[in-house]
UniProtKB/TrEMBL annotation:
Residue span, Plastocyanin-like domain: 58-189, 393-496
One GO molecular-function entry: copper ion binding
Transmembrane annotation, as ranges: none
CDD domains: CuRO_2_BOD_CotA_like, CuRO_3_MCO_like_5
SUPFAM superfamilies documented for this protein: Cupredoxins (SSF49503)
PANTHER family to which the protein is assigned, alphabetical: BILIRUBIN OXIDASE, CUPREDOXIN SUPERFAMILY PROTEIN
Protein source organism: Sphaerobacter thermophilus (strain ATCC 49802 / DSM 20745 / KCCM 41009 / NCIMB 13125 / S 6022)
Name of the protein in question: Bilirubin oxidase
Keywords: Oxidoreductase
Length: 497
């Protein structure tokens, strides 16, 4: 099969109407919140921790009483968490025991190009001596590995919660949907020294939405050509694939028992297309629901209070919630104010016991860092992201992704301003660099734009971002992180020269 399925089916899917496939019903707030296990290195030396991961098919009980076939790193969804130290190198050997090619990208990583998971740098299935039968299609000159690839992550970057996920050209949406995503947490001394909630009071929350068939299998509508134009397609490809079941750390609408204390919630929206407007119900009696302490790129300089947080696919928010404000016995729902029916709920916290407080939220979190100075920008570039409709692909500056075309050549260690335009709605992500949002529609940045970002969520209009292109020379992508838009070719290359 030389033609990528996503490109053919997507446009046809526009004609399909939302609705009839609904997941088996699940009683919410019954399943305890799982925490993805931390992966142990297979060995370490003076400079490096070495890990091995196998990507394989497995069965998981996601909905109580149902068996679901997933594709998982180490056979689990989310994949195991990697805990890394700033300045200490990690090497992950990824072995592909799936029936399809894969690519692994460390999202938020400052990574040399050969380890960044370029969309055509495939790892072919380990089992296959007959690769041609696996729909690998054209390789566009990507560096193809057979069975295994070692990814080298120098971790020359500050503490932050990153994530790794599949990035295969044209197939990222379906492959992530089946489970290929996991957390990668970098820590450093600055963070260690802060009196933040830790251990069981530091909780990663990987939020995704999925739809399941009547017998519990994952349902990815855009890959089911038999359903085109028939009732049963959950969402149209133009908007991306939306599920009707919200999973946190792979469990449907889970529940977590908490004590009367502050908790640090490390939020990642790993959904293919759905943004969430997160809030607490009931809100705490005094003060804001969330105190944001970090963004995609790590700790903020100073904390920011929010009553709600809009989180788009791929974004991370590091927040403190003070359950000490609620009486024991209170159930606090994490809700999605943009959801309807079941997707309006995310999970529940049950304040189950009195507990002593030890944490504080310091006024100063990370040391002040000089922001890139707009007057030093040597280049201003403009990129327009327009969603496809009725058979048209999704484009950047009216062009579809071509691995062989470079849209921008920033010079190493120079600063650039990129003016992004979005129509109608796109989470825009740059590999390699962390940027700051300078402005929105000519005005100040939005309420959720603080700190170092690698993904900026745009609902129409424009945003100016500023970045210093440091770290490595080479070819990287930037793209819409609505994974169906990405697969529909809303992606471009930049090359640091
Ligand atoms: Cu999270 Cu290019 O990806
Ligand atoms: Cu998009």
């Amino acid at each position: 099969v030389a033609l990528p399925i996503g490109r053919m089916i997507g446009p046809m899917n526009e004609l399909a109407k939302a609705g009839a496939v609904t997941s088996p019903p699940v009683e919410p707030f019954q399943v305890p919140l799982p925490i993805p296990p931390v992966l142990k290195p297979v060995r370490t030396d003076a400079s490096t921790d070495y890990y091995e991961m196998v990507q394989r098919e497995a069965t998981a009980e996601i909905l109580p009483g149902y068996r679901t076939t997933i594709w998982g790193y180490e056979g689990i969804f989310p994949g195991p968490t990697i805990e890394a130290r700033s300045g200490r190198q990690v090497v992950v050997s990824q072995r592909n025991e799936l029936p399809v090619p894969v690519v692994t990208h460390l999202h938020g990583g400052v990574t040399p190009p050969e380890s960044d998971g370029y969309p055509t740098d495939l790892i072919l299935p380990a089992s296959s001596s007959h690769d041609a039968n696996h729909g690998t299609g054209h390789h566009h000159g990507g560096a193809v590995a057979h069975g295994t690839r070692d990814y080298v992550y120098p971790n020359q970057q500050r503490a932050a919660m990153l994530w790794y996920h599949d990035h295969r050209m044209d197939f990222t949406g379906p492959q992530v949907y089946r489970g290929l995503a996991g957390l990668y947490i970098i820590r450093d001394e600055i963070e260690d020294a802060l009196p933040l909630p830790r251990d069981e009071r530091e909780v990663p929350l990987v939020i995704t939405d999925r739809t399941f068939t009547a017998d519990g299998d994952l349902y990815y509508p855009s890959l089911d050509p038999t359903l085109q134009g028939q009732p049963g397609v959950v969402s149209s490809f133009a908007n991306g694939v939306f599920g009707d079941t919200i999973l946190v750390n792979g469990a449907p609408w889970p529940v977590l028992d908490v004590g009367t204390a502050r908790y640090r919630l490390r939020l990642l929206n790993a959904s293919n297309a759905r943004p969430y407007l997160l809030a607490l119900d009931p809100p705490p009696p005094n003060g804001p629901a969330f105190i944001q302490i970090g963004s995609d790129g790590g700790l903020l300089e100073t904390p920011i209070p929010h009553d709600e947080i809009l989180i788009s696919p791929a974004e991370r928010f590091d927040v403190i919630v003070d359950f000490g404000q609620y009486p024991v016995g209170t159930s606090v729902r994490l809700v999605n104010r943009e959801g309807v029916g079941p997707t309006a709920d995310v999970m529940r916290f049950d304040v189950a016991r009195r507990e002593e407080e030890y944490s504080e939220i310091p006024d100063r979190l990370a040391p002040e860092e000089p922001l890139p100075d707009p007057s030093e920008a040597v280049e201003v570039r403009r990129f327009q992201f327009i969603a496809g409709f009725f058979g048209w692909p999704s484009t950047v500056n009216f062009r579809i992704f071509d691995p062989n075309r470079i849209a921008a050549r920033p010079r190493l260690d120079t600063t650039e301003i990129w003016e992004l335009h979005a129509d109608p709605e796109h989470p825009i992500h740059l590999h390699l660099v962390h940027f700051r949002v300078l402005s929105r529609n000519g005005g100040p940045p939005g309420p959720w734009d603080a700190g170092w970002k690698d993904t900026v969520f745009m609902r129409g209009g424009s945003a100016q971002i500023i970045a210093r292109f440091s770290g490595y020379r080479g070819k990287y992508v930037f793209h819409c992180h609505n994974l169906e838009h990405e697969d529909m070719m809303m992606m471009e290359n930049f090359e640091v020269v």
